[in-house]
From TrEMBL:
Residues 24-139 form the Ig-like domain. One of its GO terms (cellular component) is external side of plasma membrane. It is found in: Membrane. Residues 1-24 form the signal peptide. One of its GO terms (biological process) is regulation of T cell activation. The keyword Signal applies. This is Ig-like domain-containing protein.
Length: 153
């Protein structure tokens, strides 16, 4: 009898341990360096779960730092929604969510888009929101053309 009880206890322990460790041990990873883009570019703000784990059942909110209530993109109850003012410019890579990839596609970047963006994911008691910086420069050819203008006699 005793060995069986031990086995049941061990099994229970393993199941409970596994359930608590699986989400709690997850980290959201964003690049430490800014994403650099030119105005008009389509860019990706990278963000992924480590160790690799599905994000399909999580709530995901991409928002500009300090603007939590007006997110670029909201994914909740397995449904994605573009934020006000970002319609047609933002999306997640739906098929990548299963692989824990929460990266945001931001199309036609504007100079006013520069700033810090938070990739927030939550599930039950677990929540993380690391920030990634976006730098937007004006189109280089425009700068060169302006320079040539000044130099011509
Ligand atoms: C996430 O998906 C994007 C778009 O497909 C891709 O460029 C990027 O490399 C992916 N990141 C990871 C960590 O797989």
């Amino acid at each position: 009898m005793e060995p069986l009880i031990h086995k049941v206890c061990l099994l229970t322990f393993l199941v409970v341990f596994d359930a608590t460790s699986s989400v709690a041990d997850l980290s959201l990873i964003v690049p430490p360096d800014p994403v650099v883009a030119s105005a008009g570019d389509d860019i990706i703000l990278p963000c992924h779960l480590s160790p690799q784990s599905s994000a399909v059942a999580m709530d995901i909110r991409w928002f500009k730092e300090g603007d939590f209530t007006n997110p670029l993109y909201l994914y909740k109850s397995r449904t994605g929604e573009e934020g006000e003012g970002y319609k047609g410019r933002v999306s997640l890579f739906t098929q990548e969510l299963e692989r824990g990839n929460l990266s945001l596609l931001l199309k036609n970047v504007k100079v006013s888009d520069r700033g810090r963006y938070k990739c927030q994911a939550s599930h039950l008691d677990w929540i993380q929101e690391p920030a990634v910086a976006l730098q937007v420069t004006i189109i280089p050819s425009l700068v060169i053309r302006a320079g040539q203008c000044y130099r011509s006699p």
